[in-house]
Q: What sequence folds into this?
């Protein structure tokens, strides 16, 4: 696809980055260490390869930063990123804000079958919890994927969605900037790494928000 065609494709959409920035702890070749911003382990160690070129060893886990959790997270030997179809990780999405402590089925009336559901709550208050009844409703519709920002998807939600036998429903955690989206519905993309055996994968999550062109 040529550059002009890409320009036409995104002319009517605003691209919003929904990923948190991850700053790892960095061990430089000269021995200096730079602290990162993660509570969970994420360390990189610099070395020089043939060339010479700078490269890094990476020591981390699968649940750092914005990540998508897959069935292998709760079921040993179940589906990892390489076994899930790509279309699962992109599609129409509904953006829902919550201010109450619990998310109930009555809060999900606008959710449609096949939606990617993006839930968020303002920071600073009590983190809303998805009730077990709401998790069951989302699984039964079924939705395509769930993403959360400052919303708690507990064990009931993980079991109901990731454990769904026919078509498992991935869960994205640590989304960011959902408050920047003004539209109720957007197109969402969040592709995992194609790495076998992983229970979860980092993603670069984005929303394509429709914009109205105003001609002067």
A:
């Amino acid at each position: 696809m040529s550059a002009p065609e890409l320009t036409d494709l995104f002319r009517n959409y605003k691209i919003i980055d929904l990923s948190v920035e991850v700053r790892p702890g960095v061990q430089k070749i000269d021995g200096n260490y730079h602290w990162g911003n993660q509570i969970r382990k994420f360390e990189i160690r610099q070395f020089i390869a043939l060339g010479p070129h700078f490269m890094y060893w990476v020591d981390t886990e699968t649940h750092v930063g914005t990540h998508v959790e897959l069935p292998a997270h709760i079921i040993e030997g179940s589906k990892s990123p390489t076994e899930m179809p790509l279309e699962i990780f992109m599609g129409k999405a509904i953006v829902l804000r919550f201010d109450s402590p619990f998310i109930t089925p009555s809060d999900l009336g606008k959710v449609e079958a096949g939606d990617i559901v993006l839930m968020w709550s303002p920071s600073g208050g009590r983190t809303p919890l998805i009730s077990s009844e709401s998790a069951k409703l989302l699984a039964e519709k079924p939705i395509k994927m769930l993403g959360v920002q400052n919303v708690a998807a507990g064990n009931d939600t993980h079991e109901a969605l990731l454990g769904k036998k026919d078509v498992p429903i991935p869960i994205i955690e640590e989304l960011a900037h959902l408050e920047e989206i003004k539209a109720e519905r957007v197109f969402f993309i969040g592709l995992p790494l194609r790495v076998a055996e992983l229970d979860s994968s980092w993603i670069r999550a984005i929303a394509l928000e429709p914009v109205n062109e105003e001609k002067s």
About this structure: The longest strand covers residues 42-49. The first helix runs from residue 3 to 10.
